[in-house]
Amino acid sequence: MMRFTFRRAAALLGLGVAAVPLSSLAIPVTATPARAQATEVDGPALPYASTPDLRAATVARAVREQRATNPVAADETARELARHDYDTVFRGFLDGTPLRPDDAGDVLTAFIALQWMVANDATVEPSPAALRAIRNRFVAPMAERPPLSQPAARAAFAEQVKLRAVLHHAGWQAAKRLGVLPRFVAGLSREFIPVATLRTLALTEDGLVPKGRAGRAAPKPPSIAESPPVPDARPAPSAPAPDAAGPPRHAANWDSVEGVYFRSTTGFGVGGLMTIDFEPLIFLRDGTYYEIADTALEDVDLAAERAARPKRFGRWTAKGAGYVLTDARGRANDYALGDGSFFRAFPAASGERVTRAYRRLSGGGNTALGGDVAIAVESRYDFHADGSYGRGGSVGATNSGASTGVGTAIGRRRAPEGGRYALDRHTLTLTTADGRTRRLFFAYGSQKDPPEIDREMIFVGDDVFSPAD
């Protein structure tokens, strides 16, 4: 069995530094390669390449986010992850199973199995059949949607899940050894599958099914794209959209536009879970790009914006069928259109009507890394065929009290808003019941190759929304 000292788990719990052995996942871990003992799982393959640079970036993001809330624990995390390669540890978890460390679907399957084991403090080893059933039930339905459907986003997501699994297991083992398992479990994130739900499930050859009802359907698979993050290292937002009762002051901006696109970004969502989000980009004919915020482009003074927020600007150059984007710090990245991380954005038709509701869930906190705090922010737009709209949302925060012994929870709803809306290409105009008018940037997402409009994904400002149903 693989075993080494991993003191980070105790720091995650806020209990000081102690020697904590990180043993196997309790999925069979032996010296015999997995391929010699079990065949690969069924379902869509989701391969990706784990590179040293990607793993280093994954660790750096995790440490940076934790440092904002717990600098001491962040220093310990950085120290231990510099000594121990989480990729090697995770690969040891999968030895003897049909799961592949270079397949994002298998990585997520292992984490779901680990979540069940931690919630139930189980030592049972999931069989190959059980793991296949978990993958088919919970992962396969997500394969055709971001981030799993997009190679670049898939790789970033899989590495984040791998690191989280290693820290999750370390925290579990530390809590057991220190006699504080209930406090540890109480502070776990509710993302993917909540602990309360996992405790109602049994692990069988049919996967996770309700206890005492083998063969009955397990809960509806969670959506891994429901928690868009605050993107990593994104610049401060522009000023709120101004009142737009009059005509736009900078309508000529659109004459300078080469195209409208969006790219994937990584960051943190509810509880600090590392997730994938998207941000819109305006390519200008002078070879620069602009990371647009809420305000519609025709209301943006680009010269003033460039002076006030230079980090929102960069340079683009065509390269074959793709582009090279160089940000304000001089960092260049290659993108190919539709490769999983860079896409064309589509405009609405002039006067188009929408008949559906869209939702965005974001947040923050540190429960994803074993901490106490989880913050969830929901925003929602309801568009109707008669040209009316409604807007609402809520904010909630919990503190498990794992570090202090005092738990808290707060919540509030956003004051509802309603009125009339109008769509015209990349502009959404909202007029509230009291007559206030705002013009916001708007775009639809895209899918397939060559790209086609995808009305399942919209941008309002630089926030991406998906259907609420």
The helix-and-strand class reads alpha+beta
Strand content is: 25-35%
- DSSP summary: helix tally: 10
Number of strands: 21
Radius of gyration (Å): 23 Å
Helix fraction? 10-25%
Net shape: globular
What's the average pLDDT?
A: 77
Low-confidence stretches: 1-38, 214-219, 221-238
* Terminal-residue CA separation: 45 Å
Largest sheet: 8 strands, antiparallel
Give a short overview.
Helix content is 25%, strand content 29%.
Q: What would you say this structure looks like, in words?
A:
- This protein is an alpha+beta fold and 469 residues long.
- Helices cover 25% and strands 29% of the residues.
- The strands form 4 sheets. Strands 5, 6, 7, 8, 9, 10, 11 and 12 form an 8-stranded antiparallel sheet that branches.
- Strand 17 and strand 18 (427-432) form a beta hairpin.
- It is globular, with a radius of gyration of 23 Å.
- 45% of the residues are buried.
Any key phrases for this structure?
469 residues; alpha+beta; eight-stranded antiparallel beta sheet; eight-stranded antiparallel β-barrel; 10 helices; 29% strand; disordered N terminus
